[in-house]
Design the sequence.
């Protein structure tokens, strides 16, 4: 199967209507353990004229070995980037969609802290649902786009930046809970992870409302 590289076609078109694009993508939505993370990548008109970094793809299409290098080049390519988080405890308390909104809002605030202005910005959100506006403090112009992580280079950048950050966190958490093998499954519902939950129960990092031992494999 030929994997088509993401482009900046949509971003260049939209930047004729706004000053800045803040592209967002989430990772960890289907995991049993660990936080959800949302990456943010900022693109302006000048940045949209620059060449897309070689090898940049939606994070699911980049091998684990190559992701850190691709993420580093993606972060250097965009004008600013950040990762917002919502903990497993927050997922249990408010549900996955509101937790995604919290993480997305924190990602937006992260790039605002680096100087990005939302005044005439468009938030380009991967997916078909705006989970951000109901949570973020203040109005935002949000445009959900299906498969944006695959087709839009700035969203691909946000995707791989968030994926590498979350994977690194899960590897760190593995050190305190090696029985779950988060260094390998990153908190998703692999067979080994489900078996460890059966044997050892839940850790403080599990989404207690989700961690069912017979949950289907989600990746």
Sequence:
């Amino acid at each position: 199967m030929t994997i088509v590289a993401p482009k900046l076609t949509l971003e260049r078109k939209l930047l004729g209507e706004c000053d800045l694009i803040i592209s967002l993508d989430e990772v960890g939505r289907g995991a049993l353990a660990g936080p959800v993370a949302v990456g943010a990548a900022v693109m302006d008109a000048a940045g949209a004229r620059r060449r897309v970094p070689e090898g940049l793809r939606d994070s699911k299409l980049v091998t684990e070995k190559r992701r850190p290098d691709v993420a580093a080049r993606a972060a250097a390519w965009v004008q600013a980037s950040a990762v917002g988080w919502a903990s497993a405890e927050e997922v249990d308390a408010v549900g996955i969609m509101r937790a995604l909104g919290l993480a997305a809002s924190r990602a937006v605030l992260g790039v605002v802290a680096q100087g990005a202005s939302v005044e005439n910005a468009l938030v380009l959100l991967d997916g078909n649902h705006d989970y951000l506006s109901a949570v973020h403090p203040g109005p935002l112009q949000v445009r959900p786009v299906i498969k944006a992580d695959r087709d839009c280079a700035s969203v691909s950048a946000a995707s791989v930046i968030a994926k590498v950050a979350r994977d690194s966190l899960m590897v760190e958490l593995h050190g305190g809970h090696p029985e779950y093998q988060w260094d390998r499954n990153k908190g998703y519902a692999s067979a080994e992870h489900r078996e460890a939950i059966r044997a050892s129960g839940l850790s403080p990092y599990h989404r207690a409302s989700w961690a069912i031992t017979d949950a289907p494999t989600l990746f």
Observations:
- The chain has one domain: 9-170.
